[in-house]
Every structure is written in C-alpha cells, then in structure tokens.
Design a protein that fits this description.
It contains two helices and no strands. The chain has 61 residues and is an all-alpha fold. It has one domain. The protein is elongated, with a radius of gyration of 22 Å.
C-alpha cells in the first residue's frame, strides 16, 4: 500500500511541474507579444488569417 501512495505523490508532483513549466512559457510568450516586435507580428498574423478567411468566404458568395 505504501508504494502506491508514493507513486501517486510522484504523479502529483510531475503534474505540478508540467503546469509550472506551461505557465512560465505562457508568461514568456505574453511578455514577448506585449513588448517589442511581438505585437506587430501577432497583428500581421491575425490580418493574414482574417484576409484568408474573408477571401474564401467571398469565393462562395
């Protein structure tokens, strides 16, 4: 029984570390996007996606 409890605790720790790593990556991306050239690149990407969607929608009409 004790071994099962240890593995459960290890899984919880691994899960917490994965969440921490994901949060750090998300914060780095947010910092990059809001400072410097990241905001411009994201804006360009959204414009390209929107133009592509509108172009396809107009081809149906």
């Amino acid at each position: 029984m004790n071994e099962l409890h240890t593995e459960s605790g290890q899984a919880t720790t691994e899960y917490a570390l994965v969440l921490l790593a994901a949060a750090i990556i998300a914060l780095l991306i947010i910092a990059w996007a809001t400072n410097g050239e990241g905001a411009g690149r994201i804006g360009e990407l959204f414009n390209q996606v929107f133009d592509n969607i509108m172009g396809r929608a107009q081809s149906f009409g």
